[in-house]
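Thread: quick sanity check before group meeting

JM: Hey all, I'm pulling together slides for Thursday and realized we never actually wrote out the predicted structure for the chain we discussed last week. Dropping the sequence here so it's in one place. If anyone has concerns about the input, flag it before I start.
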Amino acid sequence: MTDLQSNAPKTNCLQVTVISKKDFEKLYKQYAPFVLRVCYALCKDETLAADMVQDIFCSIWDRRLTLSVSGSWENYLYRSAKYQYFNHERSLTRFRVVKDDVLAGSDVWDDSTNLHIDYNDLKNKVNELVAKLPDQCRKVYNMSRSEGLKTDEISRELSLSEKTVKNHLTKALGFLRRNIESLLVLFLLAA
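JM (edit): ok, ran it. Output follows.
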């Protein structure tokens, strides 16, 4: 490698290639601090600048057999740092566009998960309240609400008068209404 020495002439017609590991190590030791300063000046982020330097030198190593640099390494590495920074910014812009598209496509205010959780909590509380009803009253309520049976069907199945079935339903619904109202007040206070 001919242009690694700091006192080497910097001409535009000079063709430089890196083939050996030793040449690459010299190049890295000599120019990595310079490239780091350039990258940091562009992005103002130490970690990002170090990553950019790493990417630049990895690219040089990967292309060492085909890379031909016209002019000085300083100029080449300065341009590489600028291109690396511009590529990073372009990637960030693409990421932001995709993120904005995804957010625009989804309802940010979609609260369906919370509503589903609240619904399940309320349903569990109602089931707990139903479990507190007297046996016959609970049986009538479940047949009416869970199984969808009508009053006359429940009365036939349980051998009760329709009036008794209606009384059990009225009692169950009144009990649930009173207790659910207090649950809703507590729920609204907690929200």
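AS: nice. The CA atoms of residues 174 and 180 lie 10 Å apart. The chain has a mean pLDDT of 81.
JM: adding both to the slides.
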